[in-house]
Specification:
Arc Repressor Mutant, subunit A; RNA_pol_sigma_r2; 8 helices; 2 domains; transcription regulation; RNA_pol_sigma-70_dom; DNA binding; sigma factor activity; 76% helix; Rna Polymerase Sigma Factor, Chain: A; globular; 198 residues
Length: 198
Amino acid sequence: MYPHLPDDISLEWLVSEARNGNQQAADRLFDTFYRRIRHFFMKDLHVNIETAEELVQDTFEKAWRKLPTLHDCVRFEAWLYTIARNVAFDHGRKLKRRKIPIPIDPEFELADAAPQVESLVLAQMHMREMWDAMPAKQRECLYWYYMENLTMEEVAVQLQLGADTVKAYISKARVKLREGIYSSEEEQVNVKSKRCRA
């Protein structure tokens, strides 16, 4: 398919060449990771193949623009997945901005349901803020450990970190998320008490 590029070229060389403007190298990288990134979106976001392909295109467009900033070519795969996760987060935010449909049903108790919907939205917004504010390494460790079901040792290999470092990142992230959950519950109680006083 690429007569000028032998099959046994290293990933590091391809990334270096793509960064220098070699379109064949960029095409080879796209072909190498296209299916993996598409599978990631379909599994993580539960979207159809058409939406997943659009998100893959978005991911690679961002990757090509940011490629000059990648100084360690060996980390290309982890770096690409980080971009894909950010694209997934952005897509999730767009979906959450859409209005929640309320069933038109005379038996539906809107007065009782409204506080529950409000509390749920507040909790989701708060957790998203906590996730976005978390250091990138902690987010990556949590993602690979919980979402991809890797062991801490496998996460360490994936992110090229020490196993103890991964363990520390996950531990700190858990604490922060627990604090976020507790804060979110307190906010919900405050909202409910304000509604009762009003």
